[in-house]
Structures are given as structure tokens and as C-alpha cells.
């Protein structure tokens, strides 16, 4: 039997507002426990929530970025349940009239093919507090700093068909929210986390199978691993004559497995009802137009422009547009050196390699975009050759000079293109290598091309890497062949 995987994601994004969604308390991460939850966040009697306009604007901008309908009216509802990290006894969310309607996102797969994933809707809600288990033996501590942090929950249609597609979708969402600047997207700090709904069905069958929901997965890699485990579990279960039950599961990264938390029968009846403390949100066309005019160029548009007007490959365009910081860095390098292909090669090659080795993000690159652009310019105008360029890059990286030009001067790396000087070096190398010259002369003509490498190496060494390699090659061949 052939099986097909069906996946739908509910992504929670913490919005980067400075204050909470219904109060003026700070949303900053990492403060001492319970120093950033005010009376409104705790739902003390007599307080009234006031909606944060910035959260509304951010949600709408997301909606516009994913080509969604933005309904004129959206409404906040109370979702009633008890949990220690929710002192109010309900979460303020949007059940029936979300702020963002149906839209779609384009994802890019490993083979550079693309696919559209539909978004069902996105709604605003407040985050809950956090339970702390480690420091309290046999008890639970509660930190309510996170209570009231604005969340945008983005619900996809069940359009994904593999773990790779799910990860690509999550990356696309991550890239959109960080381009928009509506979230820092920091998954390690919980700024973005997702519930993964997974089911399987026999290939060719139209009806969906019963799904399991894996809660709170907080990295791209965990999404893929959780799905891989879950798909295998469900197929095995069905093939052994069992049935998948609709339930909530938890992914355990240490054991690489999912475990049941609660089944649908135990699910809460949340008794949603419109929050009487908050008016419906009414957005007019002028407001939407204003927000639309503020949108930055988005990842999909940037990718398309990198391909069509800069002539980059689909792969380069995808990699360079994946994060806003990467795209901005690349564009600055390109602006300085004027050659898109060279800029792309250096950013993805030498620079990304060095950043990866030292586990640095591009925002913290020791070499600035301007410095890299100037370095590339010196290669393009033949001031230095490729080998010297790598030395200059290393020196910039290590802070041994402020600019490519300064390092080229200080280290004497200027390329030697003077034919006379190169010829003199070649003559010296030939005079110093009688055995190799004899070997060259005595070998088959088709093998000589390879043997010339030895002489090129010697001349480059004599020039301390500064001779123009094309000239060295050409002149060497002439001089050696003259000896035949
Ligand atoms: P609920 O209202 O119970 O949360 P929804 O219908 O809103 O359920 O779906 C929640 C998420 O689960 C959505 O992202 C949706 O795409 C996904 N989903 C729904 N049915 C399936 C299924 N059979 N297999 C995989 N994902 C599914
Ligand atoms: Mg749900």
C-alpha cells in the first residue's frame, strides 16, 4: 500500500510590539519573573483591556503580504479554560471573525520548484504565562511576564504533503514576518512556534485520514523529525489493523518521538463568546491602503527581481532572499561592486563559509557589505587576482585593515601584470628546474598541459601569489614550447 501524508500547520507568531496586546506592560524577553505582568494581564477584577493598535497594524500587514482578504469587521472572543498560567480563566482570541481571512504563501522546495500553500485565516490572541518546573521540587512556579504578549496565529489549509514541504512553509512564514519586521522570529526564545497536524491516507483516496496534532514544535528541524516519526507511527498503526485517534501529542526531541497528551474526548469545551470588554475592530479602506503603502519588498518579489533583473539563478535568488538581513547585505555588496554574480558568489561562498565556521549570523559579520563590495571591485578591475582576494578577505575578517585597498597596499598584493616582470620570473623558474623541463620536453604532447601546473605553481610562488595567473599560463606555454 502506498501512503500519502497530509499536513496542516497552526503557526503562532509573537508580534514585536513594545507593549502587550491589551495593556501597557512591556513585552521584553528575559526579565525577572513576574515583573512585567500588570493588573490587566492578570485579569484582576475591574480592569478593562485596551487594544494595542500596533498589533492590529502588524496582523493586517501580514494579511496583505499573503494576499489575504481583510474583513472590515473582526471580533475578539473569550476562550474559557483553566490553566495555572492563565489567571484570568480565559484567553482573549478571535474564534468566529478573525482579522485576516483566506490567503496564500509560495514555498520553495529543494529542487527550486515552488508550490502555493493556502492560508485558511490568521487571528490575533494573547499569549499565556509560563510554567516553571525545574526550580520547585514537586511544585510548579508560574512566570506571567509572557501573559498578554500579542500572538498572530496563522492557520494553513491541509495543503502540505511531506515534512520537507512543512519545513519550507514554516521558513516562508518566518521570512515574511521578519521581512515585515512584525516579529523577531526567534524560535529558540519562543517567538515563533507551531502546532503540526498530521494524517495519512492511501494514495489516490480523496477523503483525509484522522489527524494527530503535535503541539508547540519550536524549530524547523523538529518539525521535520516530528512529522517523520508521526507518519511512520500512523502507517504502522493502520497496517496492523488499528485506527488513528484524533488527539494532541507532544514531540520529545531527545527520544525523537511523539507521545499522546490528550484525546479529543478529553478536549475542553471552550464556550467561546464575544468579549464584552472589547469593541469589534472596524477597518476602513483608507487604513488598509495606508498599511499597504508601507509594505517593504517581500521575499517572493525580491527573489523574482534577483532572477529577472540581476540574472541570478533560481538557487542563488532563493538563498539570498531567504532572510531580510542576507538580502540587504547582498544588495549593498552588489551596489558597491556592480557585479551581481560576483556579489552572489562571494556572499554565499567565502563569507557564508566563514560565518558558518564561527557560528555567526550575517548581522554580526566582521566584514561589512561595503568592505566586501570594495574587495570584489579590486578583483574586477584586475588590481588583485583571485588568490590574493582570499588573503585580503581573511585580513578583513581578522580586522587587520579597514579596507581592501589598505590591505592590498600593506601586504603588497597588487597583481603583477607587467609582462616583462612575469617573463623574468618565468625565465628564472625554467633555469632552476632543468629536470622538470626535460621531463616536459620528453613527454607526450597531450600530457604537457597537465605538467605545466608545476611551473605555474613555482612562478606564482616566486611572485608571492601576485602574478596574473592567465598571463603566467600563456607566457609559460610559449616559453616552454619554444624549448621543444
Ligand atoms: P480545529 O478547529 O479542530 O482546530 P481545523 O479544521 O481548524 O481544526 O484545523 C486545524 C489545522 O489542522 C489546520 O491547519 C488544518 O489545515 C489542519 N488539518 C485539518 N484536517 C487535517 C487532516 N485530516 N490532516 C492534516 N491536517 C489537517
Ligand atoms: Mg486549533
From TrEMBL:
<dbReference type="InterPro" id="IPR042114">
    <property type="entry name" value="GatB_C_1"/>
</dbReference>
<dbReference type="InterPro" id="IPR003789">
    <property type="entry name" value="Asn/Gln_tRNA_amidoTrase-B-like"/>
</dbReference>
<keyword id="KW-0547">Nucleotide-binding</keyword>
<keyword id="KW-0648">Protein biosynthesis</keyword>
<dbReference type="GO" id="GO:0070681">
    <property type="term" value="P:glutaminyl-tRNAGln biosynthesis via transamidation"/>
</dbReference>
<dbReference type="InterPro" id="IPR004413">
    <property type="entry name" value="GatB"/>
</dbReference>
<comment type="function">
    <text>Allows the formation of correctly charged Asn-tRNA(Asn) or Gln-tRNA(Gln) through the transamidation of misacylated Asp-tRNA(Asn) or Glu-tRNA(Gln) in organisms which lack either or both of asparaginyl-tRNA or glutaminyl-tRNA synthetases. The reaction takes place in the presence of glutamine and ATP through an activated phospho-Asp-tRNA(Asn) or phospho-Glu-tRNA(Gln).</text>
</comment>
<dbReference type="Pfam" id="PF02934">
    <property type="entry name" value="GatB_N"/>
</dbReference>
<dbReference type="InterPro" id="IPR017958">
    <property type="entry name" value="Gln-tRNA_amidoTrfase_suB_CS"/>
</dbReference>
<protein>
    <recommendedName>
        <fullName>Aspartyl/glutamyl-tRNA(Asn/Gln) amidotransferase subunit B</fullName>
        <ecNumber>6.3.5.-</ecNumber>
    </recommendedName>
</protein>
<dbReference type="Pfam" id="PF02637">
    <property type="entry name" value="GatB_Yqey"/>
</dbReference>
<dbReference type="InterPro" id="IPR023168">
    <property type="entry name" value="GatB_Yqey_C_2"/>
</dbReference>
<dbReference type="InterPro" id="IPR006075">
    <property type="entry name" value="Asn/Gln-tRNA_Trfase_suB/E_cat"/>
</dbReference>
<keyword id="KW-0436">Ligase</keyword>
<dbReference type="InterPro" id="IPR018027">
    <property type="entry name" value="Asn/Gln_amidotransferase"/>
</dbReference>
<dbReference type="GO" id="GO:0005524">
    <property type="term" value="F:ATP binding"/>
</dbReference>
<comment type="subunit">
    <text>Heterotrimer of A, B and C subunits.</text>
</comment>
<comment type="similarity">
    <text>Belongs to the GatB/GatE family. GatB subfamily.</text>
</comment>
<keyword id="KW-0067">ATP-binding</keyword>
<feature type="domain" description="Asn/Gln amidotransferase">
    <location>
        <begin position="328"/>
        <end position="480"/>
    </location>
</feature>
<dbReference type="InterPro" id="IPR014746">
    <property type="entry name" value="Gln_synth/guanido_kin_cat_dom"/>
</dbReference>
<dbReference type="InterPro" id="IPR017959">
    <property type="entry name" value="Asn/Gln-tRNA_amidoTrfase_suB/E"/>
</dbReference>
<dbReference type="GO" id="GO:0050567">
    <property type="term" value="F:glutaminyl-tRNA synthase (glutamine-hydrolyzing) activity"/>
</dbReference>
<dbReference type="GO" id="GO:0006412">
    <property type="term" value="P:translation"/>
</dbReference>
Amino acid at each position: 500500500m502506498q501512503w500519502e501524508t497530509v499536513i496542516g500547520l497552526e503557526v503562532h507568531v509573537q508580534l514585536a510590539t513594545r507593549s502587550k496586546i491589551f495593556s501597557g506592560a512591556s513585552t521584553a524577553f528575559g526579565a525577572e519573573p513576574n515583573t512585567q505582568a500588570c493588573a490587566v494581564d492578570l485579569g484582576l477584577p475591574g480592569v478593562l483591556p485596551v487594544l494595542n493598535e500596533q498589533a492590529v497594524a502588524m496582523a493586517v500587514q501580514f494579511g496583505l503580504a499573503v494576499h489575504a482578504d481583510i474583513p472590515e469587521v473582526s471580533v475578539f472572543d473569550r476562550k474559557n479554560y483553566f490553566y495555572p498560567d492563565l489567571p484570568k480563566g480565559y484567553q482573549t482570541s478571535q474564534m468566529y471573525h478573525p482579522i485576516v481571512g483566506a490567503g496564500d504563501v509560495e514555498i520553495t522546495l529543494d529542487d527550486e520548484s515552488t508550490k502555493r500553500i493556502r492560508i485558511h485565516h490568521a487571528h490575533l490572541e494573547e499569549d499565556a504565562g509560563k510554567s516553571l518546573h525545574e526550580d520547585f521540587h514537586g511544585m510548579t512556579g508560574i512566570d506571567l511576564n509572557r501573559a498578554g504578549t500579542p500572538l498572530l496565529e496563522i492557520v494553513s489549509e491541509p495543503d502540505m504533503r511531506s515534512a520537507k514541504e512543512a519545513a519550507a512553509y514554516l521558513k516562508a512564514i518566518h521570512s515574511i514576518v521578519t521581512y515585515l519586521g512584525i516579529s523577531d522570529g526567534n524560535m529558540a526564545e519562543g517567538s515563533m512556534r507551531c502546532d503540526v497536524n498530521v494524517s495519512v491516507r492511501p494514495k489516490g483516496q480523496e477523503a483525509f485520514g484522522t489527524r494527530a496534532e503535535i503541539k508547540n514544535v519550536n524549530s524547523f528541524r523538529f518539525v521535520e523529525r516530528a512529522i517523520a516519526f508521526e507518519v511512520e507511527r500512523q502507517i504502522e498503526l493502520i497496517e496492523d489493523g488499528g485506527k488513528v485517534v484524533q488527539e494532541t501529542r507532544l514531540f520529545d526531541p531527545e527520544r525523537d518521538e511523539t507521545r499522546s497528551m490528550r484525546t479529543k474526548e478529553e478536549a475542553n469545551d471552550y464556550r467561546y463568546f464575544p468579549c464584552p470588554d472589547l469593541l469589534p475592530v472596524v477597518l476602513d479602506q483608507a487604513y488598509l491602503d495606508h498599511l499597504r503603502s508601507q509594505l517593504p519588498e517581500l521575499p517572493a518579489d525580491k527573489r523574482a527581481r534577483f532572477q529577472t533583473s540581476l540574472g541570478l539563478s533560481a538557487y542563488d535568488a532563493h538563498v539570498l532572499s531567504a532572510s531580510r538581513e542576507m538580502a540587504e547585505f547582498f544588495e549593498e555588496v552588489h551596489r558597491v561592486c556592480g557585479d551581481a554574480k560576483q556579489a552572489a558568489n562571494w556572499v554565499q561562498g567565502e563569507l557564508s563559509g566563514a560565518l558558518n565556521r564561527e557560528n555567526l549570523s550575517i548581522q554580526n559579520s566582521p566584514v561589512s557589505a561595503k568592505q566586501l563590495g570594495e574587495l570584489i571591485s579590486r578583483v574586477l578591475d584586475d588590481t588583485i587576482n583571485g588568490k590574493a582576494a582570499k588573503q585580503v578577505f581573511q585580513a578583513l575578517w581578522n580586522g587587520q585593515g579597514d579596507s581592501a585597498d589598505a590591505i592590498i597596499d600593506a601586504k603588497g598584493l597588487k597583481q603583477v601584470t607587467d609582462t616583462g616582470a612575469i617573463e623574468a620570473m618565468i625565465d628564472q623558474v625554467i633555469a632552476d628546474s632543468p629536470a622538470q623541463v626535460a621531463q616536459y620536453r620528453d613527454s607526450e604532447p597531450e600530457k604537457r598541459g597537465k605538467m605545466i601546473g608545476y611551473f605555474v605553481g613555482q612562478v606564482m610562488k616566486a611572485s608571492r601569489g601576485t602574478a596574473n595567473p592567465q598571463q603566467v599560463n600563456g607566457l609559460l606555454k610559449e616559453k616552454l614550447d619554444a624549448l621543444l
